[in-house]
């Protein structure tokens, strides 16, 4: 399918921070995707948690499987809207590279540890991974990805950090957080695909863990609409087959809603180029208002019944403790870290880089080795 006029075209990329000869058989965005897949940080995602810590079960989602699901959903929607599938895939596969061990709990703990030293944002850390921390090439640090991929990776950014980015890279990826402009449609799409995937697989993992029940989920409109339809069509269906079919239909409904709502918004905005997209006042890849409200209700349900479940809170509290205590150990004795992280300028930022790159199980093992205590 040909690209729409408002899609990013790799032939017109804003380029890389370090000039390179184009690849003979791949576009710049395909090359970005391949670099992400072959990176060390990408491989580590297989042992980084979503909601359930890595040791709690082999079938729960990890950051790696989540990233793959986001890429699949994103490509499906991009193809229908005429957007650049390769760019969407590159962004989707890279968007969580900077996430800490122990999910959002680890991120919160590391942000607290870094409060006096510039804080910690996992989106900014993902950019830091692809710009600086990956060391694979002789001529530069990082993966040297194209501007559009880097822009999509940086979904959120505080104004303070955006100013710092603008100082080192004028009119770069931090600029839109200062002037209110929009990212590419491909970046906007990845943001929504992330949300769709997150909700669906947390429902699945929540039921698999025994912390959520189908009866509870039937109180949530977005799920019950489809679970009841499945029951009417297959009266004898129950258990995991019922759950899977309801989730499948819920995913499809959200995907089709994004496609239709985005077509309407693009038409209404009259955009005809990437420049038009960036200067528009609103995000143009979107849900319809009813679907946005339904998705928000599902998020509130998951927050109250899964993310704040006592069993999840207990394990994530231990994850926070591991991160905080590792940070203090390394501050007192940086020699416990590889030399690469002790020579990055400010000591605390090097510690944050090292801890953020850890998998759940490596962080647990290091904590036990350095403190002599077993928390998990």
Automatic annotation (TrEMBL):
Matching Gene3D superfamilies: Hypothetical protein af1432 (1.10.3210.10)
Keyword Cell inner membrane: no
Keyword Hydrolase belongs to the record: yes
Record-linked SMART domains: HDc
Superkingdom per UniProt: Bacteria
CDD domains (alphabetical): HDc (cd00077)
Matches recorded under Pfam families: HD (PF01966), HD_assoc (PF13286)
Molecular function, one GO term: dGTPase activity
Gene Ontology terms describing biological process: dGTP catabolic process
InterPro entries, per the entry: dGTPase, dGTPase-like, dNTPase_2, HD/PDEase_dom, HD_domain, PHydrolase_assoc_dom
Region described as Disordered: spans on this chain: 10-32
Domain HD: 63-199
Listed SUPFAM superfamilies: HD-domain/PDEase-like (SSF109604)
Keyword line: Hydrolase
Family named by the database record: Belongs to the dGTPase family. Type 2 subfamily.
Protein name, as recorded: Deoxyguanosinetriphosphate triphosphohydrolase-like protein
UniProt organism field: Roseateles toxinivorans
